[in-house]
């Protein structure tokens, strides 16, 4: 067997059904990897694995049981308020709500998890419920992508395992393909979305009215994400092959063909967003995370499931490009499709954590181990993977909606290496979920990994994916009632049987085009995991790859745009100036700016603006450095703006039955005790009278020594604080009077003072939106005595139970890691502070990080591009501040794209970009940055 020499996974002859080889090899590798293990991390005992497996089962019961009891038939559970999330009845959360179609989403998404977790009886009940209760004909606009992966995938996964169970002869004997019929009904409902000339689907559809009809309220969209259009083939092909209705697979193939056609021909990368009518790339940045992720996943898995070589060829072509441009081990960084040597961001999103798992399927284990290790260190620092984190591993977006991608990669890496290290990783994930996300009514998403505060949200993918991967990680073959190797996981971890490859193949035959070049062996390098080759006699292989990365997160220096021209280093030239290092008082730096064509303009209001005139740069290389410098500056500026916002605070309910499990996101006050500098305040709550706290309290005895609850409105926050302080309160929580408001949907703010000196206010004051506030008020109604902790960061539950123990336990390793992360947050903001301080103390020139707004940078960009476009040879001294350059810029940009497209031999690795192409991309880059900031994951 040879991954390099043969086609598919080691067969010397092309096979029509490579899946069987993949499955067989994967299974073989697993056995061999685990059995040859002799050294490295201590193997985990069978008992401990079983214990952890049982823990996963218990956690699933807690999540699923609470959903069924308190939320079903709603789409999702709201674990803090312990009720169902019904679309239209809660404030809109924007695009995230497009997954909700009033079709009991969580139940459908959980179906095949029940079978994997050996809950066959519950599965049988769940299927009956779906058949009885679920309506797919609701007048609601849903995401085509989410409905496909979660609902169609859920029904098909359920069907796949229902027929498996029926065949076994004990369960599901009554089953007659009813789930499949529902899946088909849903499939037909999604088809109108494909009514575009390109064949790319509209991003949304109305389940009842389809698209375009006035009642549909959708169909005017022009763009979709690449993953949205490219993540259909597994479910649609399975539907076609199960039912014989070929249309589904045909449509999904057509969309994939179109995306492939539109790939950027010189880099072989795809952008994040595409126009569904014209096929133009709307966002030209490219990575393996949000917006693109599962497009790549489905190309490889379509090859595995359908045995169609063209998918493998496409995947391998993209994979080469990813490894050449995006993979910067251990990082995976977005680049521009036309300028793939140019990083498009200095941060990574959490969705890319699936990629090491995909690399395992591809058989490229080394980078998978490296990236996974880096991600694990980020997790160890913040307990969860924040939605986005910077290249120096600081939090960029602090939420974490209990995403499963990292658990998925951990599972696949364990399968490929047999290294017990990955079992320990899984154990940490379980511990963190129980410690920080578990609440009395399920598991709550993290609103902010830094404070430990929660969001009233438990997404269906948590049940569809997280529990499957965690359970499988610890399970032995005999713990699962069927052979998992006979199935492939969809992106939502739904199981589709590999035998579909040989069923109803007519569509595949019809679509086999001659477009593909004759494939040679190089197209099939490492197409599946093969531990025989990867770990010949070296069970320490994975450990040896991880070792150098051990402290990559802790020891990391701030990194901006990290890719630096290799040739500069080789020739001994100094690395380019980084925005972070820049000091306007340093004459050497000013000289470098000049060389890069960047000038400083003093604005009348005292601010300073940076403008790059690429044409004034000393050379094209300096111009390129200048471009990078400006990009870094934009990011630095927006990062600093974020860091300057006061971080949220936490209100943690510590009394029975919450015991610290519910953490609410609270806004700070500009006055009173600063909880980030002082120890937290703990006390029982009491409502003030009058409730608005706007006059002397009439119930001082009730609030004395307690934390007063006060309603927002009718007087200044500071006045309320003084009144409760005078009554003897030790703290205050102001609860919003706007009913339904929530930190999920409204931005947090700081409570301002009253314009007078507020030094007399000594107690801590926090603000809760109405929804979070009512969680406390409800608790008071139910339990009367409710104790809370006001702090900057949720505290470990173990110490909360008994305040006496708090001091002792604060030095425990667990708390050390918490303290460490708190330190990290403050030390990184200190870094920024010191830059700022230095600058503002010296003179106004140095104050740019605060005074230079991204909008200023946009202007600067337009100016420079405009100049270049209107007369590329002239060195302009006057500037057009209105930047009337868009059309010309676009022309230039298009021209540059066409040239690049028609020249597939361009080697980005070596080429120095010509100035006009840098300028042509300038506006595009700025737009991309703006969009990325707005981007929803
Ligand atoms: C899941 O719904 C799927 O895995 C999807 O491909 C992207 N990520 C979410 C969970 O994070």
Automatic annotation (TrEMBL):
Record has Signal as a keyword: yes
Which superkingdom? Eukaryota
Biased composition (Polar residues) is annotated at 861-895
- Residues at the catalytic site: 146 (proton donor), 293, 387 (proton donor), 405
- What sort of enzyme, by top EC class, is this? hydrolase
The chemistry this enzyme catalyses reads: N(4)-(alpha-D-Man-(1->2)-alpha-D-Man-(1->2)-alpha-D-Man-(1->3)-[alpha-D-Man-(1->3)-[alpha-D-Man-(1->2)-alpha-D-Man-(1->6)]-alpha-D-Man-(1->6)]-beta-D-Man-(1->4)-beta-D-GlcNAc-(1->4)-beta-D-GlcNAc)-L-asparaginyl-[protein] (N-glucan mannose isomer 8A1,2,3B1,3) + 3 H2O = N(4)-(alpha-D-Man-(1->3)-[alpha-D-Man-(1->3)-[alpha-D-Man-(1->6)]-alpha-D-Man-(1->6)]-beta-D-Man-(1->4)-beta-D-GlcNAc-(1->4)-beta-D-GlcNAc)-L-asparaginyl-[protein] (N-glucan mannose isomer 5A1,2) + 3 beta-D-mannose; N(4)-(alpha-D-Man-(1->2)-alpha-D-Man-(1->2)-alpha-D-Man-(1->3)-[alpha-D-Man-(1->2)-alpha-D-Man-(1->3)-[alpha-D-Man-(1->2)-alpha-D-Man-(1->6)]-alpha-D-Man-(1->6)]-beta-D-Man-(1->4)-beta-D-GlcNAc-(1->4)-beta-D-GlcNAc)-L-asparaginyl-[protein] (N-glucan mannose isomer 9A1,2,3B1,2,3) + 4 H2O = N(4)-(alpha-D-Man-(1->3)-[alpha-D-Man-(1->3)-[alpha-D-Man-(1->6)]-alpha-D-Man-(1->6)]-beta-D-Man-(1->4)-beta-D-GlcNAc-(1->4)-beta-D-GlcNAc)-L-asparaginyl-[protein] (N-glucan mannose isomer 5A1,2) + 4 beta-D-mannose
Tell me yes or no: is Repeat among this UniProt entry's keywords.
Answer: no
- Co-factor requirement: Ca(2+)
Tell me, what is an example of a GO biological process annotation in this record? ERAD pathway
Gene Ontology MF term list: calcium ion binding; mannosyl-oligosaccharide 1,2-alpha-mannosidase activity
Q: Which residues form the PA domain?
A: 688-774
InterPro entries, alphabetized: 6hp_glycosidase-like_sf (IPR012341), EDEM1/2/3 (IPR044674), EDEM3_PA (IPR037322), Glyco_hydro_47 (IPR001382), PA_dom_sf (IPR046450), PA_domain (IPR003137), Seven-hairpin_glycosidases (IPR036026)
**Pfam families membership:** Glyco_hydro_47, PA
Region annotation Disordered: residue ranges?
A: 803-913
Its pathway is: Protein modification; protein glycosylation
Q: Name the job this protein performs.
A: Involved in endoplasmic reticulum-associated degradation (ERAD). Accelerates the glycoprotein ERAD by proteasomes, by catalyzing mannose trimming from Man8GlcNAc2 to Man7GlcNAc2 in the N-glycans. May also participate in mannose trimming from all glycoproteins and not just misfolded ones targeted to ERAD. May have alpha 1,2-mannosidase activity.
Family per similarity comment:
Belongs to the glycosyl hydrolase 47 family.
Name under which the protein is recorded: alpha-1,2-Mannosidase
């Amino acid at each position: 067997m040879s991954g390099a020499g043969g086609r598919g996974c080691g067969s010397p002859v092309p096979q029509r059904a490579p899946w069987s080889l993949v499955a067989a090899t994967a299974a073989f590798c697993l056995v061999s990897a685990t059995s040859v293990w002799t050294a490295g991390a201590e193997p985990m005992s069978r008992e401990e694995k079983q214990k952890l497996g049982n823990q996963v089962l218990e956690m699933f019961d807690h999540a699923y049981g609470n959903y069924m009891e308190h939320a079903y038939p709603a789409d999702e559970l709201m674990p803090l308020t312990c009720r169902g999330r019904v679309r239209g009845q809660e404030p809109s959360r924007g695009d995230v709500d497009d997954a909700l179609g009033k079709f009991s989403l969580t139940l459908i998404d959980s179906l095949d998890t029940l079978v994997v977790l050996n809950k066959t009886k519950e599965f049988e009940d769940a299927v009956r419920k779906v058949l009885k209760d679920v309506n797919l004909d609701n007048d609601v606009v849903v995401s085509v992508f989410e409905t496909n992966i979660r609902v169609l995938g859920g029904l098909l996964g359920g069907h796949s395992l229902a027929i498996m169970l029926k065949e076994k002869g004990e369960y599901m004997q009554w089953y007659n393909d009813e789930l499949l019929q529902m899946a088909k009904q849903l499939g037909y409902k999604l088809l109108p979305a494909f009514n575009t000339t390109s064949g790319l689907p509209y991003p949304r559809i109305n389940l009842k009215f389809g698209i375009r009809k006035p009642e549909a309220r959708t169909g005017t969209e022009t763009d979709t994400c690449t993953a949205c259009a490219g993540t259909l083939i597994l479910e649609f092909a399975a539907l076609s092959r199960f039912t014989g209705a070929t249309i589904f697979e045909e449509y999904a193939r057509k969309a994939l063909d179109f995306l492939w056609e539109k790939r950027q021909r010189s880099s072989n990368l795809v952008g994040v967003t595409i126009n569904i009518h014209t096929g133009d790339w709307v966002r030209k940045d490219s990575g393996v995370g949000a917006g693109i992720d599962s497009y790549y996943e489905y190309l490889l898995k379509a090859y595995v499931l359908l045995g169609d070589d063209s998918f493998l060829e496409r995947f391998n072509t993209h994979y080469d490009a990813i490894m050449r441009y995006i993979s910067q081990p251990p990082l995976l960084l977005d680049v521009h499709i036309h300028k793939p040597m140019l990083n498009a961001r200095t941060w990574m999103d959490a969705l890319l954590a699936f990629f090491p798992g995909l690399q395992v399927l591809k058989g490229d284990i080394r980078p998978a181990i490296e990236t996974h290790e880096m991600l694990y260190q980020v997790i160890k620092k913040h307990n969860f993977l924040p939605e986005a984190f910077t290249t120096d591993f600081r939090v960029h977006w602090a939420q974490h909606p209990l995403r499963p991608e990292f658990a998925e990669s951990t599972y696949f890496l364990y399968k490929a290496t047999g290294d017990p290290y990955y079992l320990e990783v899984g154990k940490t994930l379980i511990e963190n979920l129980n410690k920080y996300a578990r609440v009395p009514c399920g598991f709550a998403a993290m609103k902010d990994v830094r404070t430990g505060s929660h969001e009233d949200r438990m997404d269906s993918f948590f049940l569809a994916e997280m529990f499957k991967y965690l359970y499988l990680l610890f399970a032995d073959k005999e713990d699962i009632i069927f052979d998992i190797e006979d199935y492939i996981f969809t992106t939502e971890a739904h199981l589709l049987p590999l035998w579909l490859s040989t069923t109803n193949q007519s569509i595949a035959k019809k679509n086999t085009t001659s477009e593909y070049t004759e494939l040679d062996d190089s197209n099939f390098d490492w197409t599946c995991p093969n531990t025989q080759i990867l770990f010949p006699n070296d069970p320490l292989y994975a450990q040896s790859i991880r070792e150098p990365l051990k402290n990559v997160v802790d020891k990391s220096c701030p990194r901006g745009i990290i890719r630096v021209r290799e040739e500069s280093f080789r020739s001994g030239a100094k690395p380019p100036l980084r925005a972070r290092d820049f000091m306007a008082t340093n004459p050497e730096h000013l000289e470098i700016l000049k060389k890069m064509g960047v000038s400083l303009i003093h604005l009348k209001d005292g601010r300073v603006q940076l403008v790059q005139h690429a044409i004034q740069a000393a050379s094209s290389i300096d111009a390129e450095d200048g471009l990078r410098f400006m990009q870094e500056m934009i990011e630095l500026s927006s990062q600093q703006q974020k860091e300057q916002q006061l971080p949220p605070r936490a209100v943690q309910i510590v009394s029975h039955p919450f015991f610290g499990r519910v953490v609410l996101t609270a806004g700070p006050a500009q006055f009173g005790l600063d909880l980030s500098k002082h120890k937290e305040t703990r006390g029982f709550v009491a409502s003030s009278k009058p409730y608005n706290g706007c006059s002397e309290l009439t119930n001082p005895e009730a609030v004395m020594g307690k934390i007063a609850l006060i309603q927002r409105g009718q007087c200044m926050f500071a006045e309320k604080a003084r009144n409760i302080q005078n009554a003897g309160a030790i703290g205050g929580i102001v609860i919003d009077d706007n009913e339904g408001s929530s930190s999920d949907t409204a931005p947090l703010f700081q409570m301002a003072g009253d314009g007078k000196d507020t030094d007399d206010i000594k107690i801590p004051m926090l603000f809760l939106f109405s929804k979070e506030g009512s969680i406390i008020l409800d608790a008071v109604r139910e339990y009367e005595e409710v104790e809370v902790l006001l702090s900057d960061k949720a505290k470990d539950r173990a110490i909360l139970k008994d305040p006496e123990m708090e001091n002792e336990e604060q030095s425990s390793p667990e708390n050390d890691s918490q303290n460490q992360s708190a330190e990290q947050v403050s030390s990184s903001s200190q870094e920024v502070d010191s830059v700022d301080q230095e600058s503002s103390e010296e003179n106004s020139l140095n104050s740019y990080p605060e005074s230079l707004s991204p909008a200023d940078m946009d202007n600067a960009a337009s100016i420079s591009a405009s100049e270049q476009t209107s007369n590329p040879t002239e060195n302009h001294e006057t500037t057009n501040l209105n930047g009337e350059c868009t059309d010309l810029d676009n022309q230039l940009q298009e021209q540059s794209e066409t040239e690049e497209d028609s020249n597939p031999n361009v080697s980005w690795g070596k080429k120095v970009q010509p100035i006009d192409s840098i300028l042509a991309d300038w506006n595009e880059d700025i737009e991309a940055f703006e969009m990325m900031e707005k981007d929803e994951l």
